[in-house]
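Researcher: We plan to redesign the surface later, but first we want a full-length starting point. Tokens attached.
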């Protein structure tokens, strides 16, 4: 029997896996990629009796591979908060899926594990830009304001590390970063004693400073659309910068378009934080688009679709 851990390369996916493996340490094959690489089950070659843990990737985007793996007799435990569509009924599938815009995969895992590693779930919720959910979840911990700010920065930096068009854009591959975090049951120990944490913080702060110098290309009281250049730093910071803008302007929808080699765009969309819905529906109208209600994206938006995207973006968040 083989074990496979399949997880999104962002803060939510990494922290969800970390919680699960702290609770049940096993040797497994790790399957992950950049944050937007979500068609991960196609990379799993499992057979009857094998066990697969899937974290923070859309079931809808992995449906055919999921059904095929179940057909081979593999057992699959699935935690996620993205659009799923119809969930297959199969005795080998244990699906824990909740698309509520105020939850994330790590909070679902935290509930499953009876809050054994709540600090890491709070870290992930901050990283997923679910600030109120993170603060609510953290209440039993009685953390100081300073400690909450530390977890917020850690979650943001883990999330920041997952963005990019390819692994070459990232400071660490998600698999590398998970392995660096793996020894720490307590995130404060990672913050205080591991040099890799400071490397992430330095990279994040440098990149966010560059992004802040880019002014919106289209802006109203309810919409903001920005274009970032075709640079590694821009691909790394696009998502977390969109999160930061959403936090500072909670009544406004935000779109972050990063130029690509072919002239098209990598797109991050954030629904207004005061009405966290519609981002996934907007992005699914375009090929390679998907996500969740509050935050979604398009992997490849052709330059010829720019005007159409702006029109639909404006319509989606009136």
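Model: Full-length starting sequence:
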């Amino acid at each position: 029997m083989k074990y496979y851990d399949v997880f999104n390369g962002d803060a939510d996916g990494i922290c969800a896996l970390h919680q699960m493996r702290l609770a049940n340490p096993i040797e497994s094959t790790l399957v992950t990629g950049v944050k937007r690489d979500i068609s991960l089950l196609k990379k799993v070659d499992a057979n009857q009796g094998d066990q697969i843990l899937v974290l923070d990737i859309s079931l809808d985007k992995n449906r055919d591979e999921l059904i095929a793996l179940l057909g081979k007799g593999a057992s699959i435990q699935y935690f996620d908060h993205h659009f799923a569509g119809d969930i297959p009924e199969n005795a080998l599938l244990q699906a824990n899926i909740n698309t509520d815009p105020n939850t994330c995969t790590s909070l679902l895992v935290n509930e499953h594990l009876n809050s054994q590693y709540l600090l890491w779930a709070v870290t992930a919720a901050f990283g997923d830009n679910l600030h109120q959910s993170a603060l609510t979840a953290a209440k039993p911990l009685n953390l100081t304001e300073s400690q909450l700010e530390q977890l917020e920065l850690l979650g943001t930096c883990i999330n920041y590390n997952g963005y990019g068009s390819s692994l070459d854009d990232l400071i660490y591959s998600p698999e590398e970063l998970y392995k660096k975090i793996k020894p720490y049951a307590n995130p404060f120990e990672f913050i205080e004693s591991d040099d890799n944490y400071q490397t992430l913080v330095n990279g994040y702060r440098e990149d966010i400073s560059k992004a802040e110098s880019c002014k919106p290309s289209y802006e109203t009281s309810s919409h903001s659309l920005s274009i970032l250049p075709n640079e590694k730093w821009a691909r790394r910071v696009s998502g977390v910068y969109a999160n930061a803008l959403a936090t500072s302007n909670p009544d406004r929808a935000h779109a972050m378009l990063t130029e690509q080699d072919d002239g098209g765009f990598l797109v991050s969309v954030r629904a207004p934080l005061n009405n966290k819905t519609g981002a996934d529906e907007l992005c699914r109208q375009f090929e390679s688009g998907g996500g969740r209600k509050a935050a979604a994206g398009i992997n490849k938006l052709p330059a010829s679709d720019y005007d159409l995207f702006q029109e639909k973006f404006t319509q989606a968040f009136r």
